[in-house]
Amino acid sequence: QVVMVESGGGFVQAGGSLRLSCAASGRTFSNYDMAWFRQALGKEREFVAAINWIGSRQSYSESVKGRFTISRDNAKNTLYLQMNSLKPEDTAMYYCAARPIYASGTYSHSNTYEYWGQGTQVTVSS
């Protein structure tokens, strides 16, 4: 089992930045592709970004492309999401997720992920 704890959320004005972290423990972190999803109040969970096990490939949703950057440090068992130029529509609970490197399906499919963190809230004011 992989246990993940997100941190770094908070309240920020539009145009500001935040850096989310996801600390993982349990099984070997580098055996998993990782992703960030978010869920706004009253809406379905949506894909934000993903990164493969070694960090050589990233994928982003169109809504965050060019503003957010996903990265990972396998030596520290930590996943990151740097969020710049934040907008009020980025307000949501942000979750990190892990799936084995042999999992099939596109990164954006939430049902391909086996492990989830508890989430960290990001609120962007206008």
Topology:
Elements: E1 2-7, E2 10-13, E3 18-26, E4 32-39, E5 46-51, E6 58-60, E7 68-73, E8 78-83, E9 92-100, E10 115-116, E11 120-125
Parallel strand pairs: 2-11
Antiparallel strand pairs: 1-3, 3-8, 4-5, 4-9, 5-6, 7-8, 9-10, 9-11
What does this 3D model show about the protein?
The chain has no helices and 11 strands. 0% of the residues lie in helices and 52% in strands. The strands form 2 sheets. Strands 2, 4, 5, 6, 9, 10 and 11 form a 7-stranded mixed sheet that branches. A 4-stranded antiparallel sheet has the order 1-3-8-7, with no helix packed on it. With 126 residues, the chain is mainly β. Strand 7 and strand 8 form a beta hairpin.
Q: Which terms summarize this structure?
A:
126 residues; mainly beta; four-stranded antiparallel β-sheet
Helix-strand sequence: EEEEEEEEEEE
Task: Report the principal-axis shape.
Answer: globular
Taking the alpha carbons of the first and last residues, their distance comes to 39 Å
Strand fraction band?
over 45%
Binned, the helix content reads under 10%
Number of helices: 0
Unreliable stretches covering 5 or more consecutive residues: none
Structural class: mainly beta
Radius of gyration: 13 Å
Give the number of DSSP strands. Answer: 11
Overall pLDDT: 96
Major sheet: size, sense and barrel closure?
A: 7 strands, mixed
